[in-house]
């Protein structure tokens, strides 16, 4: 009897794992959609749109003839002259209230059909050394909530909202405690909104490490980060998935690091995962204590 139950349980576990892998890989086989044809009314808002994944999405939307409101830190990678007519580039920090208000006004005036919430940066440091922890909350949560609220009030059907959570939301993340917590909020917020608003296409992605972005610029030279670099994804891959998955799936794990973490959290007790986090934290502590505290910029 015990042997039969064990076999049955094993079969169920294997099926669940295979189903999870299937759902994670399925969007890669979708064709990219023309989102202007899908949603019409060619206006879109992209936060974090001046670098990394957000910049790739911005350029793809422009190629599909969207008029855009691009929000992000000032860079030399994109300028106002590159944008279509009736578009705007807002260079600033989303933790600043006047920036959020300017974007909300644009949403109210233009009634965009897409909102891409892509802003964010993780600067690893000991939590107690963060000079203004409230800036994390303002930039990653408060602004996201305000912009999403304005978008849904302006357009409660036939539109799309994209959120970016992260693999770090799934397990203990020493030296990124506040950032990981904001990504956990983003995941729950997006998941709940997608059930509450059936007239909108809402997508939340959970990328693992993303190479060729600012993600690794502030990270110390350590075996753990060197390892995840090897399995990191490219921004173009993540951007392409947005155009493949929006309106087809609602929650999307992407990248080997996220797949492994998601499966591990199902089968490994959280206390064991926390212990693994402590081991990594211990090996990093001396480097982190030598870092000069930095104020968050987004």
Automatic annotation (TrEMBL):
<dbReference type="InterPro" id="IPR051019">
    <property type="entry name" value="VLCFA-Steroid_DH"/>
</dbReference>
<keyword id="KW-0812">Transmembrane</keyword>
<keyword id="KW-0472">Membrane</keyword>
<comment type="similarity">
    <text>Belongs to the short-chain dehydrogenases/reductases (SDR) family.</text>
</comment>
<protein>
    <submittedName>
        <fullName>Oxidoreductase, short chain dehydrogenase/reductase family protein</fullName>
    </submittedName>
</protein>
<dbReference type="GO" id="GO:0016491">
    <property type="term" value="F:oxidoreductase activity"/>
</dbReference>
<dbReference type="Pfam" id="PF00106">
    <property type="entry name" value="adh_short"/>
</dbReference>
<keyword id="KW-1133">Transmembrane helix</keyword>
<feature type="transmembrane region" description="Helical">
    <location>
        <begin position="6"/>
        <end position="31"/>
    </location>
</feature>
<dbReference type="InterPro" id="IPR036291">
    <property type="entry name" value="NAD(P)-bd_dom_sf"/>
</dbReference>
<dbReference type="GO" id="GO:0005783">
    <property type="term" value="C:endoplasmic reticulum"/>
</dbReference>
<dbReference type="InterPro" id="IPR002347">
    <property type="entry name" value="SDR_fam"/>
</dbReference>
<dbReference type="InterPro" id="IPR020904">
    <property type="entry name" value="Sc_DH/Rdtase_CS"/>
</dbReference>
<keyword id="KW-0560">Oxidoreductase</keyword>
